[in-house]
From TrEMBL:
<dbReference type="InterPro" id="IPR000182">
    <property type="entry name" value="GNAT_dom"/>
</dbReference>
<dbReference type="InterPro" id="IPR016181">
    <property type="entry name" value="Acyl_CoA_acyltransferase"/>
</dbReference>
<dbReference type="InterPro" id="IPR050769">
    <property type="entry name" value="NAT_camello-type"/>
</dbReference>
<dbReference type="Pfam" id="PF00583">
    <property type="entry name" value="Acetyltransf_1"/>
</dbReference>
<dbReference type="GO" id="GO:0008080">
    <property type="term" value="F:N-acetyltransferase activity"/>
</dbReference>
<keyword id="KW-0808">Transferase</keyword>
<protein>
    <submittedName>
        <fullName>N-acetyltransferase 8-like 2</fullName>
    </submittedName>
</protein>
<feature type="domain" description="N-acetyltransferase">
    <location>
        <begin position="1"/>
        <end position="124"/>
    </location>
</feature>
Length: 128
Protein backbone atom coordinates (compact mmCIF):
# COMPACT_ATOMS: atom_id res chain seq x y z
CA UNK A 1 0.00 0.00 0.00
CA UNK A 2 2.98 2.30 0.42
CA UNK A 3 3.83 2.16 -3.29
CA UNK A 4 0.59 1.92 -5.26
CA UNK A 5 2.15 3.18 -8.53
CA UNK A 6 5.05 0.74 -8.25
CA UNK A 7 2.93 -2.22 -7.21
CA UNK A 8 -0.26 -1.73 -9.22
CA UNK A 9 0.26 0.82 -11.98
CA UNK A 10 3.65 -0.13 -13.43
CA UNK A 11 2.26 -3.09 -15.42
CA UNK A 12 -0.52 -2.57 -17.99
CA UNK A 13 -2.59 -5.55 -16.81
CA UNK A 14 -2.64 -4.49 -13.14
CA UNK A 15 -4.67 -1.58 -11.81
CA UNK A 16 -5.83 0.19 -8.64
CA UNK A 17 -9.00 2.28 -8.24
CA UNK A 18 -10.02 4.69 -5.49
CA UNK A 19 -13.52 6.08 -4.93
CA UNK A 20 -13.63 9.53 -3.33
CA UNK A 21 -16.39 11.81 -2.15
CA UNK A 22 -16.36 15.31 -0.78
CA UNK A 23 -17.37 15.38 2.88
CA UNK A 24 -17.45 18.69 4.73
CA UNK A 25 -15.40 20.29 1.96
CA UNK A 26 -12.66 17.66 2.04
CA UNK A 27 -12.01 14.68 -0.20
CA UNK A 28 -12.54 11.41 1.65
CA UNK A 29 -11.67 7.93 0.42
CA UNK A 30 -14.86 5.86 0.31
CA UNK A 31 -13.47 2.70 -1.22
CA UNK A 32 -10.64 1.05 -3.09
CA UNK A 33 -9.91 -2.08 -5.07
CA UNK A 34 -6.98 -3.53 -7.02
CA UNK A 35 -6.44 -6.22 -9.63
CA UNK A 36 -3.22 -8.07 -10.40
CA UNK A 37 -2.72 -10.14 -13.56
CA UNK A 38 -1.67 -13.75 -13.06
CA UNK A 39 -0.49 -16.27 -15.63
CA UNK A 40 -0.57 -20.06 -15.49
CA UNK A 41 0.67 -21.60 -18.71
CA UNK A 42 -1.37 -20.07 -21.51
CA UNK A 43 -4.14 -18.89 -19.20
CA UNK A 44 -4.24 -15.35 -17.85
CA UNK A 45 -6.57 -14.28 -15.09
CA UNK A 46 -7.04 -11.38 -12.72
CA UNK A 47 -6.88 -11.54 -8.96
CA UNK A 48 -9.03 -9.00 -7.13
CA UNK A 49 -7.20 -7.55 -4.10
CA UNK A 50 -7.74 -4.99 -1.38
CA UNK A 51 -11.41 -4.26 -1.86
CA UNK A 52 -12.25 -2.04 1.06
CA UNK A 53 -15.45 -0.01 1.31
CA UNK A 54 -16.04 2.63 3.98
CA UNK A 55 -18.76 1.56 6.43
CA UNK A 56 -20.73 4.69 5.49
CA UNK A 57 -20.84 3.53 1.84
CA UNK A 58 -21.80 -0.09 2.34
CA UNK A 59 -25.15 -1.40 1.06
CA UNK A 60 -25.47 1.47 -1.45
CA UNK A 61 -23.84 -0.18 -4.48
CA UNK A 62 -20.28 1.13 -4.26
CA UNK A 63 -18.76 -2.31 -3.67
CA UNK A 64 -20.75 -3.71 -6.60
CA UNK A 65 -19.58 -0.90 -8.91
CA UNK A 66 -15.95 -1.25 -7.87
CA UNK A 67 -15.92 -5.04 -8.28
CA UNK A 68 -17.71 -4.71 -11.64
CA UNK A 69 -14.98 -2.28 -12.72
CA UNK A 70 -12.40 -5.00 -12.01
CA UNK A 71 -14.45 -7.59 -13.92
CA UNK A 72 -14.82 -5.27 -16.93
CA UNK A 73 -11.07 -4.48 -16.84
CA UNK A 74 -10.30 -8.22 -16.89
CA UNK A 75 -12.73 -8.86 -19.76
CA UNK A 76 -11.10 -6.09 -21.82
CA UNK A 77 -7.75 -7.82 -21.37
CA UNK A 78 -9.06 -11.22 -22.39
CA UNK A 79 -8.57 -12.83 -18.99
CA UNK A 80 -10.30 -16.17 -18.51
CA UNK A 81 -11.47 -15.51 -14.96
CA UNK A 82 -11.31 -13.30 -11.90
CA UNK A 83 -10.46 -14.79 -8.52
CA UNK A 84 -10.45 -13.41 -5.00
CA UNK A 85 -9.89 -14.66 -1.49
CA UNK A 86 -11.59 -13.47 1.63
CA UNK A 87 -11.17 -14.25 5.28
CA UNK A 88 -14.27 -12.24 6.03
CA UNK A 89 -17.20 -14.14 7.49
CA UNK A 90 -19.37 -11.18 6.48
CA UNK A 91 -22.51 -12.45 4.83
CA UNK A 92 -22.89 -9.13 2.99
CA UNK A 93 -19.55 -9.65 1.23
CA UNK A 94 -20.46 -13.22 0.31
CA UNK A 95 -23.84 -12.04 -1.01
CA UNK A 96 -22.07 -9.40 -3.12
CA UNK A 97 -19.71 -11.95 -4.65
CA UNK A 98 -22.63 -14.25 -5.48
CA UNK A 99 -24.59 -11.35 -7.01
CA UNK A 100 -21.59 -10.62 -9.25
CA UNK A 101 -21.51 -14.25 -10.41
CA UNK A 102 -18.62 -15.54 -8.31
CA UNK A 103 -18.77 -19.08 -6.99
CA UNK A 104 -17.04 -20.46 -3.92
CA UNK A 105 -14.42 -22.96 -5.04
CA UNK A 106 -12.19 -23.60 -2.03
CA UNK A 107 -12.15 -23.25 1.74
CA UNK A 108 -9.38 -23.98 4.13
CA UNK A 109 -8.78 -23.56 7.84
CA UNK A 110 -5.43 -22.43 9.13
CA UNK A 111 -6.58 -22.36 12.73
CA UNK A 112 -9.84 -23.21 14.42
CA UNK A 113 -10.79 -19.51 14.30
CA UNK A 114 -9.76 -18.37 10.82
CA UNK A 115 -11.30 -19.59 7.58
CA UNK A 116 -10.38 -18.30 4.17
CA UNK A 117 -12.43 -18.81 1.06
CA UNK A 118 -11.39 -18.58 -2.56
CA UNK A 119 -14.00 -17.29 -4.99
CA UNK A 120 -13.89 -17.47 -8.78
CA UNK A 121 -15.79 -15.82 -11.61
CA UNK A 122 -15.37 -17.43 -15.00
CA UNK A 123 -15.42 -14.87 -17.79
CA UNK A 124 -17.24 -15.81 -20.96
CA UNK A 125 -15.91 -14.18 -24.09
CA UNK A 126 -19.12 -12.83 -25.58
CA UNK A 127 -17.31 -11.40 -28.63
CA UNK A 128 -17.11 -14.83 -30.29
Amino acid sequence: MQDIPGNYLSRPDDCFWVAEAEVDGRAQIMGMVAVVAKQSGEERHGELFRMIISPSCRRVGLGFRMAQTVIDFCKERGFSRVVLETSSPATAAVALYKKLGFSHVLSHTETQLVQSGRWRLMIVNDKQ
